[in-house]
Design a protein that fits this description.
Helix content: 40-55%
Shape: globular
Number of domains: 2
Number of helices: 16
Largest sheet: 3 strands, antiparallel
Structural class: mainly alpha
Radius of gyration: 20 Å
Strand content: 5-15%
Oligomer: single chain
Strand order of the largest sheet: 1-3-2
Number of strands: 6
Distance between the termini: 56 Å
Length: 305
Amino acid sequence: MKKEETTTLKKLTFSGHDTFHCRQLWLKKGYDFIKNGKKFVDDDAVITLGVGKNMVSAIHFWMKAFGLLDKNGNTTDFANYIFDSDNGKDPYLEDNATLWLLHYQLITQNLSSTYNYIFNDLRKERIEFTKDNFLSFIERKSSEVGFSQFNKKTVSTDFDVFLKTYNRTDEQVKDREDTFSGLLTDLNLLQEEKRKLDDKRTVTYYSLPNTNRSDIPEEIILYTILDGKDFQKSISFNTISQDTDQAGLVFAIGKSALLEKIQGVIANPKYKKYGLILNDHAGIKELQFSTKPEKFEVLNNYYGN
């Protein structure tokens, strides 16, 4: 019995950002800071980064949450690929494809539990949800995985940061600085609707509906397939469309649109040498490779254009 309880224990994280959502240039700023041999605990970090002490901690947190730093505090291959000053593909995040990659990183790194739970689990249970729905959901999940440090106030604040990351409200639009500070608002993933319960009460509902996501390049989808769950030379379409941390859930993309993007990859002459086919046996579709491409090579095909 004790052994089973130990295996269910799971560390969840709902803090570390000091209530600051990730601003537009923070990741590049943090990347250059580390590459210049600096550390976030340095006494002069506030001066070097040009932000307040709490923001220094927040930048450090988001660097880890987006998978730009490894456990030893060094920049990751992904961070170098995007943010390197000389060879980085999109250091100033001018291409929406890079934002989709960062979104994927944020969900799948699972160093900020709110994001992973909302995209992988909550939206499976609820087409739309309120903040109270979310808090109840996290309280239940905390109990299920043996996380005893659930704090409603902390989780509530984390949800507010989540909203600022993805949702550009009317209030934000009025504030020019805040308008450009929500890193992933341009992805238009999160929908908001206010509903009147009566003359005195209004409730805000949120949703992450599946859409065609026409602005996600096919290469981004292929990258996430190659980066995701370990597999040899085949992976089922059902896995890609509905498993945890796979493209279907992470990008909130409809099955038909996802299938279309995969078929686009297969038809692309650049990938002919990898022998990609979509095998359909008794209605079960499976993406197969004769040779698996390297994931950053796939991104090179996109950014090279």
